[in-house]
């Protein structure tokens, strides 16, 4: 009887967890609306007005996080394999930390990379990332391809981004 009770509790827990995961994915399956602004305030991005046609990577990071720095460095090392993808590095980090991050890694020098501040916490509210680094990849039709939580193998990110027609 005790095993049955434990089994029942486990099944309920797992089914609730899967339901939450499905609800979360349904919420972000189409690119949610949020706004980011470039560090120098020269560019404003509203996902409602982003043109379709190019895969998108949203990389939520903390400039002081070692894992975020390592993953950014790895992405930049493989940027040639991501040349057909628009990459947005999104942060709520302190200005001084973000400037140090940019000076060290130089992601802001690449044409298809934009560093943006989540100035209204709209990215955070849309995705509720449990930790950093957090990567959300969308195909050319703004449909979710993959989400990675924590440091991830770059080949997984590249494959998800290059699989541009996923879910159509």
Question: Could you explain how this protein is built, in words?
Answer:
This protein has 168 residues and is of the alpha/beta class. The chain folds into two domains: 1-30; 31-162, 3-Layer(aba) Sandwich (Glutaredoxin), CATH 3.40.30.10. Helices cover 39% and strands 22% of the residues. It is built from five helices and seven strands; from the N terminus they run H-E-E-E-H-E-H-E-H-E-E-H. Strands 2-1-5-4-3-6-7 form a seven-stranded mixed β-sheet, covered by helices on one side. Strand 1 and strand 2 (44-46) form a beta hairpin. The longest helix is centred in the N-terminal third of the chain and has 27 residues, at 2-28. It is globular and about 50 Å long.
Secondary structure: number of strands: 7
Helix content: 25-40%
Report the average pLDDT across residues: 86
Helix count from the secondary structure assignment: 5
Structural class: alpha/beta
Taken from the alpha-carbon principal axes, the silhouette is: globular
Beta-strand content: 15-25%
CATH architecture of the largest domain: 3-Layer(aba) Sandwich
- What is the straight-line distance between the termini? 47 Å
Strand arrangement in the largest pleated sheet: 2-1-5-4-3-6-7
Succession of helices and strands: HEEEHEHEHEEH
* Count of structural domains: 2
